[in-house]
Amino acid sequence: MTISRMGSAALLAAVICGCSILPGMGGSPEVAGREFVSTSVTVDGISQPLVDGTQLRIGFTADGMLMASAGCNTFAAMYRIDGGVLAINEGAVTEIGCPSDLADQDAWVFAFLGAQPLISVDGDELVLEDDNTVITLLDREVADPDLPIVGPVWVVTGLIVGDAISSIPDGVVATLVFTEDGLVMVNTGCNSGSGAAEIRTGTETILFGEVALTRMACQPPASSMEAAVLRVLNADVVRYAIEASTLDLSIAGYGLQLSGAAVD
After folding, report:
1. DSSP for 179-192, written as a single string
2. For residues 249 and 206, is the Cβ–Cβ distance under 8 A?
3. How far apart are the C-alpha atoms of 144 and 249, rounded to whole Å?
4. Mind listing the pLDDT tens digit for each residue in 37-87?
5. How far is residue 135's CA from residue 115's CA, in Å, rounded to a whole number?
6. d(CA 154, CA 146)
7. What's the rounded Cα separation, in Å, for the pair 158 and 166?
8. Nearest to 88 by CA among 107, 63, 104, 65
């Protein structure tokens, strides 16, 4: 794929194109509230793979916001669909420093979205196209369905502080496994044990009971990981959210991000 480099200002200028958008917010009810992930990209009929390990992800909120990512930064803009054309304005892009291949891919994708591509939806498939490019996407819940909270081994991959997610110490592995009989099996990265876990699916909350653990002395960095895990599990009520294979457990201003793997 031939993509030209663009700086932040140039990228925003390309995306916020000054296109005429009909008054009001929102778009087609076929996409509102859904997220899609790319399955193929063709340019002039020739397949153009994305950077290894990346997918284009596009989400449409019910109140008229489009969110897109292509491997590094995230683009957000108000959107409207009119006459089969996707039009956006009031866009903004995060400014994470990206490797050059990802920066180029971001720039190309975000500029494409800002150029009023045609849009069509057929069930779970969404297609965006201009004169020479066709991007085909599939509903994220079909392409990458949410794991159930009960059953998978959930591995802590990040610590949530406010709106930021920080990395965990190298070499320390902490896990949670929720069981059918209302328990959570815990490995804090040092000690292990179990406790009660009442999962309330209607409110997406978990009520944890006291966790009984082994009493091995923990040295840093395992001790800091154990403290982070227990800070969440010892809270009265913990909110949870699952998207694909990612589980967030959060209390006020703090939480854990975990990655799940289904158990055969």
Report:
1. -TTSEEEEE-SS-E
2. yes
3. 20
4. 999 999 999 999 999 999 999 999 989 999 999 989 999 999 999 999 999
5. 14
6. 13
7. 6
8. 65
